[in-house]
From TrEMBL:
The lineage of its organism: Eukaryota, Metazoa, Chordata, Craniata, Vertebrata. Its EC number is 3.6.5.2. One of its GO terms (biological process) is cell projection organization. This is Ras-related protein Rab-34. It comes from Gopherus agassizii. Its main location: other.
Length: 233
């Protein structure tokens, strides 16, 4: 996927492109969590396929745009990489509003960073509608965690994720483990919720956008059979 990014100093870019008629083309994703847990590295691994072992604190907020195609429909994720450092939190939190998904990152080798995820979530939810936002809890730096130690941490992380009603993912930006899979999951869930929101709006205007196509189970079976025989030729 291609990306487009930069540091945001002033106004965030417009969330919808006027050339694109549909409203579900771009989803805003915010990435929050303690300083140095690996938020920037996670985004850079996915968007640029790079990894920097030196820590460079994010100042305020950065963003990247990733383009996808979901079921043939162009769809973009606008990834907002926020600063974990306390002194930048105030600037970063002004960008929380209007998120379709909140990604809360902690370091699987740092118990305190997991404990702090509840506060990060609470702060992000202040600016968003809790019933309309998809949550992900991401354990980072899995490569640094010996398996026995990791499984202890995973138990706690799954518990926290359940309480938050978030999906739990463990990743490593150093090795790339699970990074693509994670963002593809974010893209599919946010795409799905955008389509549902769009359908709800349109059915509020008029019932009839959803047309039932008559097909019986046996028709479906026949279609599958036909496809199968074609590919075997
Ligand atoms: N071994 C290992 N190190 C990682 C991984 N991800 C990040 N790091 C290291 O952790 C440090 C912090 O990473 P960043 O991505 O800058 O952390 P951040 O969450 O963006 O920090 P702030 O911008 O201050 O909020 C860097 O030195 C990275 O190289 C990982 O998956 N494995
Ligand atoms: Mg950062």
């Amino acid at each position: 996927p291609r990306h487009l990014g930069g540091r945001l100093l002033a106004r965030p870019p417009a969330l919808t492109c006027p050339a694109l008629p549909s409203r579900f083309k771009i989803s805003k994703i915010i990435v929050v969590g303690d300083l140095s847990v690996g938020k920037t590295c996670l985004i850079n691994r996915f968007c640029k396929d790079t990894f920097d072992k030196n820590y460079k604190a994010t100042i305020g907020v950065d963003f990247e745009m990733e383009r996808f195609e979901v079921l043939g429909v162009p769809f973009s994720l606008q990834l907002w990489d926020t600063a974990g450092q306390e002194r930048f939190k105030c600037i970063a939190s002004t960008y929380y509003r209007g998120a379709q998904a909140i990604v809360i990152v902690f370091d699987v080798n740092n118990v305190a960073s997991l404990a702090h995820t509840r506060q990060w979530l609470a702060d992000a939810l202040k600016e968003n509608d809790p019933s309309n936002v998809i949550l992900f809890l991401v354990g980072s730096k899995k490569d640094l965690s010996p398996p026995a130690q990791y499984s202890l941490m995973e138990r706690d992380a799954i518990k926290v994720a359940k309480e938050m009603q978030a999906e739990y993912w463990a990743v490593s930006s150093l090795t790339g483990e699970n990074v693509r899979e994670f963002f593809f999951r974010v893209a599919s869930l946010t795409f799905e919720s955008s389509v549902l929101a769009e359908l709800e709006k349109s059915s509020a205007r008029k019932i009839g956008d959803i047309v039932r196509i008559h097909s019986t189970d046996s028709d479906l079976y026949l279609t599958a059979q036909r496809r199968k025989s074609k590919c075997c030729l």
